[in-house]
Write a structure and sequence with these properties.
The protein has 411 residues and is of the alpha/beta class. The protein has 13 helices and 14 strands. It is extended and about 95 Å long. It binds adenosine-5'-triphosphate, 1-O-pyrophosphono-5-O-phosphono-alpha-D-ribofuranose (PRP) and magnesium ion (MG).
């Protein structure tokens, strides 16, 4: 999934205006963009916003082409709008992710498409289908969004105004790939190159590919120099197309690979169109009042949460003569250095009316995967009473993605 944010919203009224303008013959704006898996991206659209300001016709066309109803009056927005998936496999995950960041989306009922996050009073949440989130970011009707990288790439079509703020949200993991039957004339075909070189394809009888990715599919084939290709499209269950005789190959999302296997299809070398989180940063400017602060806060919470997600806090007691001596023993073990080094504090015990220091408490962060190894190492150097608790946040001094975003925005 990805988070997106538009820029310069202060200068960007919501698209709207009179119905007669919809008759204008100007071409519709780009509609698609890619992103398998989870990425969080903010879209910025200074150029597009400026276009809205200067051309009301363009604004209305964006609204119409993107399926949003044109408003009757141009209204400047004070609230920042965050688009979340209204349904599908990412809907609950997106809300859960925000919840893990202590940002609680208050939706009165599931059919109400607007909601609030009390922790972000200047932000309103709008629930939309993922592709409409990208379209509405492009049109300026949304400022931020969480979508899959495949959706972002397909419907954003490489628009430079889309900025990915966070590209790896740890959910919706999948990739976009070409698959062919593992039987018949394709039995021995193992790569895209071999597929392209099959003598069967010609101008009259091209390789037929079924896909829902009608922007990324042709782009990928063109970039790979594959000439004789024809695309067909459907809304789902594409894996049935080869067996039905409708297509030779498919281009679709793959996660576990089960659907391919169950339909006697296989992936091929060089056939991955989009890897999880492979979408690059895009330049744009973000200038709506308060928007950058909101982006900063969401980003910080996200980064801190995602970083903490893989770690435990481990506390243990250790007998010793001084903090330094205990530190030496702890640091002699490879998995006990924590994020920056162990915190070691004296434990004050009262015995026979006397306060003495016989023990030291050590506190470290340990990767979840290395927990048991770390406990063994702690015991090996005299650790006892080991307490393990989950971590909610790890706030670093700075968020590298924030610096990267500012650089992208030339701020
Ligand atoms: N099998 C999968 N495993 C993991 N993530 C997936 C998978 N399929 C899709 N996704 C991710 O989840 C996003 C939403 O997929 P979902 O199937 O919920 O909606 P959709 O395919 O856009 O719409 P619909 O299937 O309702 O027509 C996709 O854009 C992709 O990023
Ligand atoms: O590799 P897998 O884990 O088997 O997942 C891949 C399948 O999941 C998605 O379909 P979805 O479930 O969204 O159904 P759809 O085709 O109706 O969109 C995708 O389009 C593949 O068909
Ligand atoms: Mg689907």
């Amino acid at each position: 999934m990805s988070i997106l944010l538009p820029t310069n919203l202060q200068k960007c009224p919501s698209p709207s205006l009179s119905l007669s303008l919809s008759l204008s013959p100007s071409p519709p704006p780009p509609i698609h963009s890619p992103s398998p898996s989870s990425a969080f991206s903010y879209l910025g659209t200074r150029r597009r916003c400026l276009r809205f300001v200067t051309s009301s016709v363009a604004s209305l066309q964006s609204s119409v082409a993107n399926g949003s109803a044109p408003a009757a009056v141009v209204v400047e927005r004070g609230q920042i709008r965050l688009g979340l998936p209204s349904k599908g496999r990412m809907a609950a995950d997106a809300i859960d992710l925000l919840k893990d960041c202590q940002l609680f989306v208050k939706q009165v009922n599931p059919r109400q498409y607007v909601a609030q996050i009390p922790q972000l009073p200047n932000t309103e949440v709008w629930f939309q289908r993922p592709k409409d989130i990208v379209r509405k970011l492009l049109s300026g009707d949304l400022d931020l969004g969480i979508v899959g990288l495949d959706t972002l790439s397909e419907y954003g079509q490489g628009d430079e105004d889309l900025i990915i703020v966070h590209e790896a949200l740890n959910f919706g993991d999948c990739h976009l790939s070409i698959a062919i039957p593992n039987y018949g004339i394709f039995e021995n075909i193992k790569s895209l190159k071999e597929l392209a070189q099959m003598p069967q394809w010609s101008e009259e009888r091209p390789l037929r590919v079924a896909t829902g990715f009608t922007y990324l599919g042709p782009k990928f084939m063109k970039e790979n120099g594959i000439q004789h290709v024809a695309f067909s499209t459907a809304d789902g269950a594409l894996e049935a197309a080869p067996a039905m005789g409708i297509a030779d190959a498919i281009l679709d999302l793959v996660s576990s690979g089960t659907t391919l296997k169950e339909n006697n299809l296989k992936e091929i070398d060089g056939g991955v169109v989009l890897e999880s989180g492979s979408c690059g940063k895009r330049r744009a400017l973000t200038d709506r009042k308060g928007a950058l602060n909101t982006v900063h806060e969401i980003l910080e919470r996200l980064e801190a949460h995602l970083k903490a997600d893989g770690q435990f806090t481990v506390v243990a007691n250790m007998r010793g003569n001084s903090a330094e001596e205990v530190a030496e023993r702890v640091l002699s073990q490879p998995s006990l250095s924590g994020l920056q080094g162990p915190t070691i504090s004296p434990v004050y015990c009262k015995q026979d009316g006397q306060v003495s220091i016989d023990y030291y408490a050590i506190v470290i962060c340990v990767p979840k995967k290395a927990l048991y190894e770390s406990v063994k190492q702690l015991r090996a150097v005299g650790g006892s009473g080991v307490l393990v608790s989950p971590l909610t946040y790890i706030f670093d001094e700075d968020t590298p993605r924030w610096g990267q975003l500012l650089t992208n925005l030339k701020l």
